[in-house]
Amino acid sequence: MQINTSQILKGTLEACILQLIKNKEMYGYEITEQLSNYGLDMVAQGTIYPLLLKLEKEHMVTSYLKENTSGPPRKYYSITKNGEEYINSFKNVWGNISTTITKILENK
């Protein structure tokens, strides 16, 4: 039986994106590359852009266009105060959940 990683990632991907943007303003493709560098190479660009739009509508990120010498302007994203508050809360919840699940899965 194969595990559906997209279902597992669904609730955590927003937090991963926010953390990456918190570390450095990025454009969409760059976010996809960074996720891949961390081992999340199964995340498609088509998944990232709707999430960025959602995060922008929820006032967790803002965006601006920046000129690009090798092509059209790129849309860069930066985290807002709401986004920072969300990521801090998420880290606490994630820590508790991951500890509990690890205990359960390691129970013999």
Oligomeric state of the chains in view: single chain
Q: Which structural category fits the helices and strands?
A: alpha+beta
What is the count of DSSP helices, taking H or I runs of 4+ residues? 5
Mean pLDDT: 90
| C-alpha Rg (nearest Å) | 16 Å
Biggest pleated sheet: 3 strands, antiparallel
In sequence order, what are the helices and strands, one letter per element? HHEHHEEH
Poorly predicted spans: none
Number of strands: 3
Structure, described:
The protein is α+β, with helices and mostly antiparallel strands and 108 residues long. The chain contains five helices and three strands; from the N terminus they run H-H-E-H-H-E-E-H. A three-stranded antiparallel β-sheet has the order 1-3-2. The chain starts with a helix and ends with a helix. The mean pLDDT is 90.
